[in-house]
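SMC hinge domain-containing protein: structure tokens wanted.
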Amino acid sequence: MGYLKQLDIENFKSWRGKHTIGPFKRFNCIIGTNGSGKSNIMDALGFVMGERASSLRVRHTRDLIHGAHIGKPVANTATVKIRFCNDTGEEIIYSRTISGEFSEYRVNGKQVTLAKYTEELQKIGIIVKTRNCLVFQGAVESIAMMNAKERTKMFERISRSMELAYEYDTKLAALQKA
Ligand code: ATP
Ligand code: MG
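Answer:
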């Protein structure tokens, strides 16, 4: 399974100017105070994957430009770029730039239509189902069919907390003995 390596944001929502977020590991956690822009990072991911404005918590696409929510956009455009590392270690760059209501999509720097862009995303197994939830193809049904234990195991595997279970149990047993 590939993974998201890096996110580059420019003038998107609360993120003024250029920001690089990452490089990411396979499992990541974003923390920050209320209103610091955590959900806007998830919105940026949805945005670069072609989500509509309504799913990104704004009425119009142009409202996504930094400052536009108070009628003072700092620029004419906003851009989000992701670097994705596929199964074979190859890096693919997807980007979306908005200028007003117009969106420009690029794959590895080459401008493409939204249909082609979506197709290119599906090639790496990504389909955007709902806001802030990027679901890998075929996984939806199998996750829904799992029982509570199986689902817990899945999260333990993803978070790699399973690898710490032995150490945790040993230390807990020692503490209980003391
Ligand atoms: P919480 O912990 O409450 O969920 P959060 O870290 O998820 O907070 P976000 O929802 O990502 O916070 O960010 C909210 C902030 O983004 C608000 O202060 C809002 O004013 C700001 N914001 C939204 N759109 C824009 C925009 N176009 N330009 C500048 N700031 C914006
Ligand atoms: Mg939030």
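The chain has a mean pLDDT of 87. Residues 13-14, 32, 34-40, 63-64, 66-69 surround adenosine-5'-triphosphate (ligand 1) (CB under 6 Å).

Cheers.
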